[in-house]
Amino acid sequence: MNTIDNQNKIFFCLDIGTRSIMGIVAEFIDDKLNIIHSVTEFHKDRVMLDGQIHDIEGVTKIARLVKEKLEFEIGYELKEVSIAAAGRSLKTIRTDSSIKIEPDVPVDKHILKSLEIEAIQKARQILVQQDENNHNYYNVGHTVINYMLDNSMIINPLGHKGSNLYIEIIATFLPQIVVDGLYKVMDNIGLDVGFMTLEPIAAIEAAVPNNIRLLNVALVDIGAGTSDIAITKDGTIAAYAMTSTAGDEITEMLAKTYLLDFDTAEAVKCNLCNSSEQSFNDILGINQSMSSADILDTIEPSIESVASEIAENIIKHNGKSPSAVFLIGGASQIPRLNNFIASKLELPKERVAMKTIEAIPNLIASKGMVNGPEGVTPIGIILCTSKNKRNDFIEVRVNDSKVKMFRSKKLKISDAIILAGFDPIDLIPRKGKSLKIYVNNTEKLITGEYGKEANIFLNGKIANLDSDINDGDSIIIDPAIQGKNAKIYLNQILDEKDVVYLKKEPKNRIVDVTLNGQSIDAWDCELNDNDKIDYKYLYSVKDLFDYYNIGEIDSILVNDKLSELTSPLVSGCEIDFTNEYENLQAYDIDEEELEETKENYFENFTIDIKSDNITDQHNKVYNDIGQTRDLVYSTFKIKYNDELIELEPKKSKLLFIDIFDYIDFDRTKANGKLLLLHNGSQADFMKELKNGDEVVIKWI
What we know:
Layout: E1 2-3, E2 11-16, E3 20-29, E4 32-42, E5 48-49, E6 52-53, H1 56-74, E7 76-77, E8 80-85, E9 91-100, H2 109-130, E10 137-149, E11 152-154, E12 164-175, H3 176-188, E13 192-198, H4 199-207, H5 210-213, E14 217-222, E15 227-233, E16 236-243, H6 247-258, H7 262-271, E17 277-281, E18 287-291, H8 292-318, E19 324-328, H9 337-345, E20 352-354, E21 363-364, H10 376-387, E22 393-398, E23 401-406, H11 413-420, E24 435-439, E25 442-446, E26 455-458, E27 461-462, E28 474-478, H12 490-493, E29 499-502, E30 505-508, E31 510-515, E32 518-519, E33 532-537, H13 541-547, E34 555-558, E35 561-563, E36 574-578, H14 591-602, E37 605-608, E38 613-616, E39 636-640, E40 643-647, E41 674-678, E42 681-682, E43 694-699
Parallel strand pairs: 1-7, 4-21, 8-13, 14-19, 19-20, 22-28, 24-33, 29-36, 39-43
Antiparallel strand pairs: 2-3, 3-4, 5-6, 9-12, 10-11, 10-12, 14-15, 15-16, 17-18, 22-23, 24-25, 26-27, 26-28, 29-30, 31-32, 31-33, 34-35, 34-36, 37-38, 39-40, 41-42, 41-43
Domain SHS2: 11-207
Protein name: Cell division protein FtsA
InterPro entries: ATPase_NBD (IPR043129), FtsA/MreB (IPR050696), SHS2_FtsA (IPR003494)
């Protein structure tokens, strides 16, 4: 027999299933896939279970038979083969992970990717712990179920800020033992594995056109023992799943209901879609004939059960009903199954459709080719092989570790990091530790310095987590560097230069400073976490005068401008004041001296008899004997809120603001808008009050 290098001329694939092995030899003619020959042989015993080879010799025997029959048909010895690992052999783990993040730094792709890597590594660790034989696993994909930021659900946390980021994922793994078993069988029959993929990937390649893969579509391969689910989204496979119910459950119900052996029940089940009438012999040899509709009515609960579990798993892994569902595999032909799935997913019936090889574009099938949905996966293996001229495994180096990876998808640096066991936390730049201090019972956070991001190099060039990798690549990761811890001194919290000048003497506006309850004078001390600082701050002129025990004053100057007690202080301002009795000496005098003082005092006034108005002609009274014990000023009357009141001045001139010393008016509690009028016009606090003036002060 001649030998042919079939890698570039013809394609040979083996679809190794639980019940049978199908082999296909094909070639491309004018961009059309021509199936030259196909052979299907059934296993004689239970040599496979859930897609995994349990009896290597038993599988080898049937695989060799298929290979030899194909070689006989084409007249050449086959040396290279394409294969696929069963979707039902995939292991799925649902887990979560969370990380603390800097509350003032927006979430970026680096943080999200690091969190995903940590969750996948956690899922892989859970899988290894569950496996008593400590098998190795290849990660073939994962799906994000949801994110939470500070305990609130969020669709996309990119750009948001918070302190705790949470992720829940479903990660899918392929046991290495499954791959090793397939390789061993191929080696036993003299075949080199040129390409390997996953059955769900192959099925999607054949059954789901490229322009549909952008949609959210579920592909369900319903076999004998399991139903394998693959879900597409945004052009890629987003999730894998498997149910433990499939065609065998329906076969078993047929066998129990009509007393049939398993093979007879299987034949009846497969014929339900081909004939309206069924005839069979039960285990007692009694022949039974009945309509397919009657049989379907009887076994409908088992059909609905299979449909329910498929629908539940689709929603579980997709988060919702998909846009459409494609059914392949032998058991997908069971009548009513597609309608039940549509009902469970609340989809129109036409959106749950069976896919057969007749629906595959640019396909020329041979006469011996199986025409139903069970032929979709092997053709998909051929199509995947033609598009992927590369090895199925690659080996890369991550820092000092060698990592072997299964190429079920386009691999990136992040995929290599998962298997290398690199701690994803080391990818995130961390701030230094923060300090929390309390200033007048208000919490203040002093943050540490920002850290330096991790540097990632691919073959010596700067790269990132999403950079594509190939066989033999070298990845170097310099971990992120944490920033310096927060450090602060008391004089950085309290400004020693925040002073005002009272009669040209500097006065600090920050007074009575305590640190953790202890009075402190030197402000150059370093603060520690949870330190408590208390102080009093002088906001206004009144605060300043009260603190320094300055009593009754006559006038206030702030930066040489007449001001009030309520005037705010500004750092660096100059405050001056005058007192009515300042610089005058008070001492006891006898009655004669008092009379003489009065005479001298009144000589400085003129009296207008008509108006009873006494006009002070001097600001101050000076005489040889100094200040009197009692200076007398003439009373006068004003009209206050339509009521005539008499004022008895205690100084030579009363200003509008002094009116509040003579009236009962509560200014501490606002009761609307304050109306202030002086002789019918808006009042000026510093304007002098005179006899006969009209004053209005009230809330409106």
